[in-house]
Amino acid sequence: MLDLLTGFVAELRAAGIPVSLTEHLDAAETLKHVPLEDREAIKYTLGASLVKSSTHWPAYETAFEIYFSMRGPAYRIDGEDADGEGPESEDEGSAQPGQGGRQGKGRGGGGGEGMTPEELADMLFKALLSANPAMVQAVARQAVDRYAGMEAGRPVGGTYYLYRTLRNLDLDKVMDRLVDQARRSASSHIEEGTQEPTPPDVALTGLEERLLRDEYQSRIDQLRKEIEAEIRRRLVADRGSEALAKSIRKPLPEDIDVMHATRDELVALRKSLAPLSRKLAVRLARKRRHGRKGPLDFRSTMRHALSTGGVPMDPKFRYPRPSKPEIIVIADISGSVASFARFTLHLVHAISSQFSKVRSFVFIDGIDEVTRFFEGVDDPAEAVHRINTEADVVWVDGHSDYGHALTVFWERWGEEITPKTSILLLGDARNNYHSTGAWVVKEMKARARHVYWLNPEPRAYWDSGDSVVGEYANYCDEVVECRTLRQLERFVGELA
Amino acid sequence: MSQDSIPTERGDREITTGFPEAGEPRFESIDAVRTGLAGVDYLADDGISGVVYLADRLAKPVLVEGPAGTGKTELAKSVARLTGSRLIRLQCYEGLDESKALYEWNYKKQLLRIQADSGQSWQQLEDDIFSEEFLLTRPLLEAIKSTEPVVLLIDEVDRVELETEALLLEILSEYQVSIPELGTVRANQIPLVFLTSNNTRELSEALKRRCLYLHIDYPQMERERAIIETRVPGISQALADQIARIVRSIRSLDLKKAPSVSETLDWARTLVVLGVESIDAEQAKDTLNILLKYRSDIDRAAKELAGLDTSG
């Protein structure tokens, strides 16, 4: 068990969760107190000492499922054949050596002795309608058997199998069917008086339909989770926990590469952006307030001394109020770097109280000022959304043209750059072989306080292909690689 | 101002009535925690009961994080009620310092003592005025000195400055407080410690390392329904069920501030008072302002609930 724990901790560290030695010791201590057969309890109690941030929990959970999967009661159910409907149950119970053979038989064998797709769909429908957990589990197992087409030893992650299974189940259609069914049973309710999950009513009102839909959605999510777990269990049995953990490791939200994030990851990113910017704002405000002490404030000291009979017991200091920088953000929002630009604009505006002024410009091959979208809006996310739809950034063909965008910027707004201004240029500098307009950056540098370039591409790709970031770099104070939220946060924190 | 010079040579003198014992475990098993908490109307899930059980066994503090209004403070209160301990609460705020959290010398009394009797030698007097008699205990020291069982709640620990966090470290890991003039005060018994945080800033690694971590999120629908049923007297099952479902739907929307458990309970109470048996869209719309606190959120939820876009 201790070996297993050590391996588990190593995996967590590899996934980016910081686990200290004392936490490891605590976890080992934990195992002494918690009954080992209670898997859920172990999961939560181990988590309590190993994971110290809620954003790390999904990564922890994934790793846990892999490392402790074979010991869980969920796995034993396979062997016991909960519903008597799984013809493959003997194979599964004795873990997966049999799986290779079964796959060898091909889809005909596996599917033939199982249920027909119609039967499976029907069972799925019933399982979701009744929300019976054992049944949902059985369906998940069947579906994986039938559709995933898993092959032993194939080095792909679970997502591939998951996708195959889900595509065949066509959950959207099932959803519609469920809602339909509910509608029908609601209208026939008066005559029959059947069992119905919703409060009885003549017809479904909008509210009720909405609630039902959410109810089914949550059941479907449950099923999806079951399927995912099922696939994972089989993969573990096939390839061993360590190999698998490596291939399906989930990055922490702050480490996700913004440019290549999947849709789910983008959602996670968006979620973690709000608390992140809040934290950053609090930290910066604090830094400003509790900065180094200034000179003695004689007046204030004497005034306070009155309460101690004129003896100055408590010297008061004048706190310095460093001037806040003015920020101009110029962001490329062409397809390749759009999400990165969005996050940066969001973050900068979320902490705009830390700057005396923030102005934002976006460009593809034309350039437009978008500061107005952020004015009087509480939620930067909303403004960022409007930018995408309303900003006028296309000049000719909608391919990035840094040269033209920068030149136009210089002609129209160049005058407004002052020595207090810091300029942030965002983009991958992939210029489609147009002229670079690097002289603009040079002029900017001469007039502004700082010019920074944030590049969401990994450093190794800079200056490859049509990337011309090197030319701009000559005139920038710094070119920063900014691929993840963590890097972005650090940069913005130093800026203010 | 003699206390400015710290008499280090006396710092190691221990004044304590006994070494902190590991103590009797308070709970038999994880299930015992859960049923116990349910007995005092707090419905814990696997995570919560597991961590509380472990906190007792390992004698470690628990750091509870989660959105506002999910029952973080309530957990500490309920555990106190369950174990029959006294709840000592330290509300954190910006600017909290040693003299408010740990201890303070009672200057006025010390001054009186000096004036009352000037015949003593300096050494005697110094010994005298830096004794426990002149110590004003603040929550943390109080929790440690108490002889009866105690649950210590350090509320909203993320509000104090990073530097002030350091004050807590000694008490959290060693259950002792060092007072330079007096020596080290050790705990008579090991209190159960809960720290809550609303996650407005990242807590320091040092603090996190010393604690067990518990994240309390919005409850699952079934649990929420059970919570409503236990906490709102006189509510019908059907109504509780409906409320829980509506709240779940609302939480799934993209809102500025999702409704918390406490707001859900408020809403349930309101509906009971209004004598509502089953909610329809109209009533839901009229009372949404109890559940949601932003104008835009209310509009949004009202629109969704009225079923304008159920096709989506």
Describe the structure.
The complex is a heterodimer of chains A (496) and B (312). Chain A is globular, with a radius of gyration of 30 Å. Chain A folds into four domains: 2-67; 73-250, no CATH class; 272-290 and 323-495, 3-Layer(aba) Sandwich (Rossmann fold), CATH 3.40.50; 295-321, no CATH class. The longest helix of chain A has 34 residues, at 206-239. Chain A has helices at residues 2-14, 21-33, 39-50, 57-67, 73-80, 89-93, 97-113, 117-130, 133-148, 158-169, 171-187, 189-192, 206-239, 241-248, 263-289, 298-305, 338-350, 371-374, 380-390, 402-413, 438-447, 469-473, 485-495, and strands at residues 326-332, 357-363, 367-369, 421-426, 450-455, 478-481. The model of chain A is unreliable at 71-113 and 189-203 (pLDDT under 50). Chain A is α/β, with parallel strands linked by helices and 496 residues long. With 312 residues, chain B is of the alpha/beta class. Chain B has two domains: 2-102 and 138-215, Rossmann fold; 221-305. Chain B contains 14 helices and nine strands. In chain B, the strands form three sheets. Chain B has a five-stranded parallel β-sheet with strand order 2-5-8-1-9, sandwiched between helices. In chain B, helix 1 packs across helix 2 (46-58) and helix 10 (221-231) crosses helix 11 (237-252). The longest helix of chain B is centred in the C-terminal third of the chain and has 16 residues, at 237-252. The radius of gyration of chain B is 25 Å and the shape is elongated. At the A-B interface, helix 2, helix 3, helix 13 and helix 15 of A face helix 2, strand 1, helix 9, strand 9 and helix 11 of B.
